[in-house]
Amino acid sequence: MLERKQALMICLIIATVFYIVYQKTMNYDIFGLPIPKPHPLAFHRESVDLSDKLFTYQLNLSYFEKEFPALQSYNCTLLIDKKDFCHSANTKPLFILSIKSYPASFNRRAALRKTWAKEKEISRYLMKPLFLIAASPSQKQMNLVADEDKAFKDILLWDFMESHHNLSLKERCFLEWLFDNCQKAEFIFKGDDDGFVNPKALVKHVRNTANASQILHGALQRYSTVMRSGKYRVSNSIFPYQKYPSFLSGGGFIFPGGHIPALYAVSMRLPVFPLDDVYFGFLSLAAGLTFRHDKKFYVFGMEDKTCLYKEALFVHGITTEKLLQVWRDFQEKKC
Ligand SMILES: *[C@@H]1O[C@H](CO)[C@@H](O)[C@H](O)[C@H]1NC(C)=O
Ligand SMILES: *[C@@H]1O[C@H](CO)[C@@H](O)[C@H](O)[C@H]1NC(C)=O
Ligand SMILES: *[C@@H]1O[C@H](CO)[C@@H](O)[C@H](O)[C@H]1NC(C)=O
Ligand SMILES: *[C@@H]1O[C@H](CO)[C@@H](O)[C@H](O)[C@H]1NC(C)=O
């Protein structure tokens, strides 16, 4: 009798151990509640010294925390996620067209979807558009964005508020999303929603450029001057130098998916700089990446000729009307 009790006891213990191990491996605790998953690379932001070929720049975290505390401490939280966005590409090389947009830019997004921001296969590459949006204080707009995503399934929405400086959070959180969900992307184009993009030209560009998948492509801003007033103002304490290290204009550029882990890792470590394109430049420098300038990224506009658009990779600052017109001209083969 005693032996049977003991055997039962042993069975019970083994079953319990199995249950706990099972729950743990499935990321649930013994009460069946989900265990919060520590991110593979938890925050450890710190001051850093970055060097390019000519200069060394120190970013001192304590000044960043004083001036831009939310930028340093925000934890990326998505209100609209896309877990399967990259799986649907199967074996095709994926080229993401990511577009920074605001909740209120409904018309712009509608025009982009009618023109270049379409899911499409171009010489093997699967081009997939994805709008990167943060929150608006208007609940009405937020509801409309949610409806829009139900119809088009091409939106990532974070819970931080849209603002000029918060664009750097969009940069950082998008890298985190790519790291978590889309390391297999071959290339990522990233640009503003007031831009013209020529997807065919982008594909041609990466196919015809040597080592395209090892470098960043865009309009290089060489040692541009640090502004101390106006919209792009930066204080002396967070950046006590006169020039920035070279970076790619944030209007539109391409980076290879192979660099996602390196960029994400440094984004967890570096102070978050309040200007998004300069910030991405710091991340690239810290990750040891190289840029390739190409004059076909037109960041300051371009001569107004449809045929030039055919050759351009990207043109910044185009009105919705102009975009639709250029696209119509393309369809009618005016070039
Ligand atoms: C950052 O600045 C603070 C305040 O001036 C200073 O105490 C600290 O040593 C600096 N950190 C580094 C890494 O230089
Ligand atoms: C972000 O998450 C970390 C770790 O869970 C936490 O310590 C920190 O307070 C969070 N930051 C904010 C702003 O909620
Ligand atoms: C930036 O986002 C953070 C987090 O949501 C928010 O606290 C802050 O107010 C935002 N900045 C602006 C200027 O809206
Ligand atoms: C491409 O990369 C290889 C190996 O890193 C290098 O030897 C070669 O010079 C590169 N080609 C160009 C055009 O940059």
Description:
It holds the Pfam family Galactosyl_T. It is a single-pass type II membrane protein. This is Hexosyltransferase. Pathway: Protein modification; protein glycosylation. One of its GO terms (molecular function) is protein N-acetylglucosaminyltransferase activity. By secondary structure, this protein is of the alpha/beta class. The protein has a single domain (48-331), classed as Alpha-Beta Complex (Spore Coat Polysaccharide Biosynthesis Protein SpsA, Chain A), CATH 3.90.550. The chain has eleven helices and 16 strands. The protein has helices spanning 2-25, 61-67, 69-73, 106-114, 139-152, 167-181, 199-208, 260-267, 276-286, 306-311, 320-331; strands at 48-51, 56-59, 78-80, 94-100, 120-122, 125-135, 155-161, 187-192, 195-197, 215-218, 220-221, 247-248, 252-256, 290-293, 297-298, 314-316. Strands 3, 4, 5, 6, 7, 8 and 13 form a seven-stranded mixed beta sheet that branches. A three-stranded mixed beta sheet has the order 9-16-15. Strands 1-2 form a two-stranded antiparallel ribbon. Strand 5 and strand 6 (125-135) form a beta hairpin. Helix 6 (167-181) crosses helix 8 (260-267) and helix 6 (167-181) packs across helix 9. The N and C termini lie far apart (93 Å). The structure holds 2-acetamido-2-deoxy-beta-D-glucopyranose (4 copies). One 2-acetamido-2-deoxy-beta-D-glucopyranose binds at residues 210-211. One 2-acetamido-2-deoxy-beta-D-glucopyranose (NAG) is lined by residues 47, 60, 62.
